[in-house]
Design a protein that fits this description.
The chain is α/β, with parallel strands linked by helices. The protein folds into five domains: 117 residues, Jelly Rolls, CATH 2.60.120; 68 residues; 106 residues, no CATH class; 177 residues, Single-stranded right-handed beta-helix, Pectin lyase-like (Pectate Lyase C-like, 3 Solenoid), CATH 2.160.20; 221 residues. It is built from ten helices and 61 strands. The strands form twelve sheets. The chain has a 19-stranded parallel beta sheet that branches. An eight-stranded mixed beta sheet has the order 17-24-20-21-22-23-19-18. Helix 6 crosses helix 7. The radius of gyration is 49 Å and the shape is flat.
Length: 868
């Protein structure tokens, strides 16, 4: 068959198929592909058969693509998560870095910013009148103002001051801000009364003028100003200052010191050390609150005064000079001639003391006393004097001296501690200005303060945890060391080897809410030596007080002249109290005294060559004092001295023991004199006793009291009109020791109420011991230690130990328990008590111990109970 024929046959078959084929709509419709293997399909115009399996290929391709997309998505998500974590981590690091950067920045800012404290007084308020808001100045003498002060680098001032009265209705600027040309750029008006101000310099201000009320400046020590200073460089921890320095220096070494305190303060860190190189520093506005340490290197003197360096000799007088001054002194105060040693204070060879450190005179400058007239200056040949009229000062000076070298000085205040804090000051002398330590902590070492008009050369108000070692307080118009406190801000200081002298009142005096501990040291030539007063509490160890007298020119006749004196009741807080141990008082009007009924104790002290060695109700323990010379003692040969001034017996040492022996009934009448039935009085040191009263009679011993004493006591009390507490000693925790025997002891002593504490463990003769407390009908408390039987030293036979309280119905159970608990166990003993005590005790179901428990205690101590 030819090719043509083949083609024709093919077309014919196709035509036949087409003619017999069904329409698509005529085909059977199926719901699934189950059993179907192929499907017809057109590829162009050509009809083809399609395997069913090919229908899944797009889906599989799509699925494959989807899976690939999924994997890509998961990979992208993982990458994104990692990126997020990395981003978060980097954000955290960035935050941390930012915080650290902020901290560093703040630290840098802190290192460049500090608060500088300054004590404002007459050293800055030098101009009369006040500056008004327009910059003009009034001429009213009621006000003072400062010269224009730089505010460079100052963010704000905080000033405590007073300008007008509490009831004022008219107000003036407390500060006027100026520019470089002294033009006013702002001001802040005051408010009524004494106020704290916060003052921020306005834009354009470079200078400030502060106003104050004159009377406030003159009378107060509270004017303080705090300035927040911003520095261009970090602060140093040590800055060197010298009168020969330069403020162009960095102050970081001895070779490059600065010259002014203002410059030093702007360079020094708040807790830094200011090292002052040798020299005299005049009128330094020193506020200790600015420093952690203040150290003198070499001979450093801070001299605060107005100086009179030239004067005219008064016509018609041989001793009087006159000068016109801007700052007249306050009447009644002292002036000084600088660096002319006061001839009246030359130290005698027999008065040289280690704390004086080689000084030849107590006062390095000569005191000039106030006079009532010019004529008095002329008439005074033994001391220098001064008088003021308006702004004219009249005075005398030491012969052979000149004012150019040795000026007359008027003390002024330039030193303070305005904000408390911690400070250590070493090797500095403060002349003519007091040292205020209010609210401070820390120490002064080898610091000298003196020749000032103040309540105290060194003043510690609310000062705690403070040590003053080898310090000197001298030449003050009041006290040398002076302290006060409150319940909220008490004072607590320690003095070691200090020297207080030539002060008009006390060498050292603590007052309300103050506690002082003083070890060693010398207090001499004051009005009084050491004087805790009005609630002050002081303990003195090894302190010497000498020649404190009312007759010194600088003390006046009103001073008491005491070496050690506790005086004045407290208005609040703890009561005034004083302990002197191992102290020495000599050459005073009174060596050791008190004006109080209790709280003053002298232990192992020496009080000699005073007009009176002791005064008042001083508890005396093993002291040596001249008023108790043997010829003044009735029975000194027997080992006891009786001070008729204080009504106090003291023991002499007899052999190797301290005993009272050989006292007669007459002695006992002296001891018990003034003791009445109401309990006003005590025997054997009833310190703190409820029976102690206005007429205390005390006896102290160290080791024992002889048995011969007891019948004498009983004899003196037999008439029943004495009420005594016996044998209470605050110095011996175990009580007093009875030696030898008690004999009949206190038999028939109907007034005896208390015996505590008596140690009878050394009693060697129990003959009569059972009657020691017989017929003591009012005995309430009896605390005996060491009750036991012994062998009779006369016969060598064992004797029964017996305590007979059968006639003492008031005896407490506590006393009986104490006696049994503290009894010995060597021998059999007997205890006789009233049956009434047994009946009440046995019936008391809540008793502790119970009667049964008490009897068991007695059995364990070999004590038999007998009821009467």
């Amino acid at each position: 068959m030819t090719e043509q024929e083949k083609q024709e046959l093919k077309q014919e078959i196709i035509a036949q198929i087409q003619s017999e084929s069904q329409d698509v709509t005529e085909l059977a419709r199926v719901q699934t592909l189950d059993g179907i293997n192929t499907l017809p399909a057109l590829r162009g115009t050509e009809l083809v058969i399609v395997p069913v399996s090919l229908l899944g290929s797009p889906a599989r391709t799509a699925a494959t693509a989807a899976m690939a997309a999924k994997e890509l998505a998961e990979t992208a998500a993982a990458t994104a998560g990692t990126a997020a974590e990395n981003a978060n981590e980097k954000a955290g690091l960035a935050q941390t870095a930012a915080s650290q950067a902020t901290e560093v920045l703040e630290a840098m800012e802190r290192s460049h910013c500090r608060r500088i404290y300054r004590y404002f007084a007459d050293d800055v308020f030098t101009e009369t009148g006040l500056m008004r808001a327009d910059g003009s100045v009034s001429t009213s003498s009621a006000y003072l103002h400062t010269v224009p002060m730089s505010v460079a680098g100052v963010e704000r001032f905080m000033l405590h001051v007073k300008l007008v009265a509490d009831t004022a209705t008219s107000f003036f600027p407390i500060v006027v801000w100026l520019d470089d040309d002294n033009n006013v750029v702002g001001y802040v008006n005051c408010t009524a009364g004494e106020v704290d101000y916060e003052l921020v310099p306005p834009l354009g201000a470079t200078l400030a003028v502060f106003n104050a009320l004159r009377t406030f400046v003159v009378q107060t020590d509270k004017i303080v100003c705090h300035a927040d200073i911003v520095s261009a460089t970090p602060f140093a921890h040590r800055i060197y200052l010298s009168p020969e320095g330069s403020d162009e220096n960095d102050g970081l070494s001895k070779g490059n010191p600065v010259q002014t305190l203002r410059r030093a303060n702007t360079l020094l860190a708040p807790d830094g050390e200011l090292v002052m190189l040798a020299g005299d520093y005049y009128n330094l506005p020193l506020d200790l609150s600015n420093y952690g340490r203040l150290t003198g290197s070499g001979r450093v003197r801070i001299i605060s005064c107005y100086r009179v360096t030239a004067a005219t000799a008064m016509s018609g007088y041989t001793r009087v000079m006159s000068a016109t001054i801007d700052n007249p002194p306050v009447r009644g105060t002292y002036l000084w001639q600088h660096d002319v040693a006061d001839a009246a204070t030359a130290i005698a060879p027999d008065e040289v003391h280690p704390v004086q450190e080689g000084a030849t005179h107590r006062l390095p400058s000569t005191r000039i006393y106030p006079a009532a007239s010019i004529a008095e200056i002329e008439e005074s040949a033994d001391v220098l004097k001064w008088y003021v009229s308006g702004t004219t000062l009249y005075f005398s000076i030491a012969a052979g001296t000149d004012l150019a070298t040795h000026p007359v000085v008027i003390p002024r205040r330039t030193v303070a501690a305005s904000e408390g804090g911690s400070i250590e000051v070493r090797n500095v002398r403060f002349l003519y200005s007091g040292l205020l330590l209010g609210g401070m902590h820390g120490m002064l070492e080898n610091v000298s303060v003196g020749m000032t008009n103040a309540a105290g050369a060194v003043r510690y108000d609310g000062t705690t945890d403070f040590l003053m070692r080898r310090c000197e307080a001298f030449g003050c118009s009041n006290d040398g060391f002076n302290g006060h406190g409150t319940s909220a801000a008490p004072s607590d200081i320690v003095l070691e080897d200090c020297w207080a002298h030539d002060n008009s009142d006390d060498g050292e005096s603590c007052h309300e809410h103050c506690a002082v501990t003083s070890r060693g040291g010398l207090y001499e030539y004051n009005g009084n030596g050491c004087t805790p007063a009005s609630g002050g509490r002081a303990s003195y160890y090894g302190v010497t007080a000498r020649k404190n007298l009312p007759g010194h020119a600088w003390t006046g006749s009103t001073r008491e002249g005491t070496g050690f004196s506790a005086q004045g009741a407290a208005t609040s807080g703890a009561q005034t109290a004083m302990l002197c141990q191992g102290c020495h008082a000599t050459g005073n009007s009174t060596g050791i005294r008190t004006t109080l009924t209790t709280g003053t104790i002298a232990v192992e002290c020496t009080s000699v060559d005073n007009a009176a060695d002791y005064g008042g109700n001083v508890v005396i323990v093993e002291n040596v004092y001249s008023t108790l010379q043997r010829q003044k003692t009735r029975y000194a040969a027997h080992g006891a001295d009786y001070d008729t001034l204080t009504g106090t017996w003291r023991m002499h040492k007899v052999g190797n023991d301290y005993l009272v022996t050989g006292l007669s009934a007459a002695d006992m009448e002296v001891i018990c004199a003034g003791v009445d039935i109401n309990g006003a009085g005590s025997l054997f040191g009833a310190l703190g006793s409820p029976y102690a009263g206005k007429t205390n009679r005390r006896i102290y011993t160290y080791t024992g009291i002889h048995s011969k004493f007891f019948p004498l006591i009983a004899n003196s009390m037999a008439n029943g009109n004495k009420s005594l507490e016996v044998f209470y000693s605050p110095y011996h925790a175990s009580g007093l020791l009875c030696v030898s025997n008690l004999s009949a002891g206190f038999a028939n002593c109907s007034a005896l109420r208390v015996v505590k504490y008596l140690d009878v463990s050394r009693v060697t003769n129990y003959a009569g011991f059972g009657n020691a407390f017989l017929n003591c009908g009012n005995l309430e408390e009896c605390y005996l230690k060491g009750f036991d039987a012994q062998k009779d030293i006369r016969t060598g036979h064992e004797t029964d130990g017996t305590l007979d309280f059968s006639k003492s119905p008031k005896l407490t159970r506590e006393s009986l328990v104490f006696i049994v608990e503290n009894a010995g166990t060597a021998y059999e003993k007997n205890l006789r008590i009233p049956s009434g005590i047994y009946t009440a005790w046995n019936a008391d179901e809540e008793a502790s111990p119970t009667w049964q428990e008490f009897t068991e205690m007695c059995v364990s101590k070999k004590i038999s109970i007998h009821l009467a």
